[in-house]
Amino acid sequence: MPELSDAFRDKLYNAVMNLKEELVKETAQILTFETISGGKTEEEKGRFQKEIAGCLHFLKALCERHGLVYRDLDGVVSVIEQPGESGEKGLGIPLHIDVVPVSGEWKYPPFSGTVAEDTVWGRGTQDDKGPLMACLYAIIALKKLGVKFLRPIHIVMGRGEEVGHWADVQYFIQKEGAPAFSFTPDAMFPIINGEKGIMNLRIDIEWDLTRSDQGLRFFSLFGGTRANVVPDKAQVLLEWEKEDPEALEQLKTSLAEFAKKNPGVKYTGPELCKRSEDQPNGVKILFQGKSAHGSLPEQGHNAILDAVHFLSQYDAVFHECRKYCEFLYVSCSKFFGEGLNIFSEHPFVGKTTVNLGVCKIDSQGGRSQINIRPTLGFSCKEVAERASKLVKEYAKEEDIKMFVVEAKAWGREPLFVDPEKNSFFISSLQTAYNAVTGRKPELQAIGGTTFAKAYPNCVSFGPVEPAEEEEMAHMTDEHVKIPHLLRNTKIYAYAIALLTTDAK
Description:
By secondary structure, the protein is an alpha+beta fold. Helices cover 33% and strands 24% of the residues. Strands 10, 11, 13, 14, 15, 19, 20, 21 and 22 form a nine-stranded antiparallel beta sheet that branches. It starts with 5 loop residues before the first helix and ends with a helix.
């Protein structure tokens, strides 16, 4: 394996530590840009563009201060470049500067860039703004040591990764060609050379609803922000023509019995509500869960699943809606695909996973998005075919208008980068990780999807070290401890030195 001399390694670590104050300050600053992608309204889209522009302006100024090249490719994607002298293809570092929405009660405001308790707090600290700053300052540390960069480095910054938009980072390849090898700091250490695939399955239902004038009856359910996030809230609304104390007491009893039979269920209400633009005259129930990354549904608690489970058993819900809720619960409560007839397991990549991420049910019907991560050897096409067949059979059996929406669904197949065919690249990353942490640099697979699928010969490399910290991507109170931010910068600096410079 390639490695750096002890003397140069020590100089490199010292260079990183000398940049600590600036690294922390600039990491906190980049977190203040509210680059939440996926807005639906014109106002949300406009705010996103404004925040992205501010974030890129900040990065451009930072690059200029440190002698790095900042380039904007036709308004599509932005690149930070350290040129190389050899004329060879070099290292790509694709990552993203957009983030997912926030939810839950945060210890510190998610876009404040708060530095407290030897920690930087905020949305993006792990996914992906903190890693961006670690990679950037790794290059800066090497430049301060006066090394010669033989191969170029390109940090390619996507703006829509969290909503499945990869055209920007792929545009870099179209314009300038693929790097020789790449890593994306968007998962965990040591090295992720295998990934499950990803696809979203949308299952809808339609009905012609004639509401009864009697008693308490179903009005709507809404939960989830993104298909790739385990939803931590789901709101159920029930309505009545006039207040019915007896029906309310029966609802309270039903909820209490449901929670008793299903440990882990948490809810608030039922709470009386008055008619407004978005709610009826009736009752509100809020099911509460725990958010997590959609690739790890077993690590969260899905509030939508609790809601549809309850509604599938509650008498005030009409037949079609109960059956739709029943299908969603049965098909998605088994996180490894058994309920959709798509269970599959690979010895290296693991099991297929399923997350019911978004659900909306109202007087017109229901719309649900299910995030599925097929394992290696199981194509997105096969998953869609199996699930669609199951939906059709269930709809026919129950005589309901439920169907899979054949939208322009994007899907990305599983990934495997062969270490034997990429020995110089993989061994350099292994050496860097081991040199900084002292731990064994094992190769691993994950259920998450990263830009590793966007570039050839690309793996995920950090930023989370499972032996030292918790995975916080997409979660409330996302943060990075300052010692971990410095650790990551050292790892990236060591790896970049081996892959692109003349350092000895």
